[in-house]
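Dear support,

I submitted the protein below through the web form. The confirmation email said the job was done, but the results page showed an empty box. After a refresh the structure appeared. I'm attaching both so you can tell me whether what I see now is the final result or a partial one.
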Amino acid sequence: MPGIASVTILVAVQSWSQFVIPFILLDDESMYPVSVGVMNLQSTQQAITTHYLAAGSILSVLPVIILFVFLQKYIVGALTTGAVKE
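What the results page shows now:
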């Protein structure tokens, strides 16, 4: 069970942070992942506004941090289960 939970968490984090493939292949802005949306936030402004970019970056990372905090025991359990020889 900890292994399945750990793989699920890692796949969710990996799919959350995809950038290159959706940036190249997707045309519809409503289907962009968060990372491409944050990059588009910077490109839609006339002047460089780093405070908007920083706020968007923090908001995009926040769900992953919350997911990690709540599921940390499963991640650690999966790591220690594979490392301990019985």
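Response: this is the final, complete result; the empty box was a page-load delay. The radius of gyration is 17 Å.
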